Amino acid sequence: MSRIVVIGGHGKVALLLAPLLASRGDEVTSVIRNPAHVEDVRAAGADPVVADVERMGVEELADLLRGHDAIVWSAGAGGGDPERTYAVDRDAAIRAVDAAAQAGVRRFVMVSYFGAGPEHGVPDSEPFFHYAEAKAAADAYLRETDLDWTVLGPSRLTLEPATGLIETGPEVGKGEVGRADVAAVVAAALVEPATIGRTIEFNNGAQPLADALRG
Known about the structure:
Layout: E1 3-7, H1 12-23, E2 27-32, H2 38-43, E3 47-50, H3 58-65, E4 70-73, H4 82-103, E5 107-111, H5 128-143, E6 148-154, E7 156-158, E8 165-168, E9 176-178, H6 179-191, E10 198-204, E11 207-208, H7 209-213
Parallel strand pairs: 1-2, 1-4, 2-3, 4-5, 5-6, 6-10, 7-9
Antiparallel strand pairs: 8-10, 8-11
Helix pairs in contact: 1-6, 3-4, 4-5
């Protein structure tokens, strides 16, 4: 049994992740900003904690994270306002990484997206540019730490039911993947040592996800 904190606990992937973790005996703390989402999170099998990570400093975040075994960053500003996108997807994520180190929580799984990075190729005239820049910075910051990190890069998200099958690897191009399978990949990555220190981009495919994650 592990104690796992999910930051961004009311997101679609996070609400699918919580019951997967709870069903295997993990204790799940889901951090949410909106008190109206408490019952949704509780119904998914997680213990809701209302906290605004956008405004919390490293010390406050460390207090929140302390005592857990792993962190899943699945928060996001949701697009729109560039200032808030940078505040959440870059700055708050980076503070959470620092807080994890300070709190002694070594395992950190970052949910990113397929193609994230400095060469994301999104023109600065497009609204998605600010999100791409923010994620590139946060992912890079995590990779430079000595935490036991994993960066997960799912392709375009769908609402298809879980298949348990994905494809990954350098030859795989962008495709699509169901949110339920993304949740299953996060759950599996948390307990698969072979994912530590890796960026894993993936689509739905034909390989059982546990095998795919072992590399």
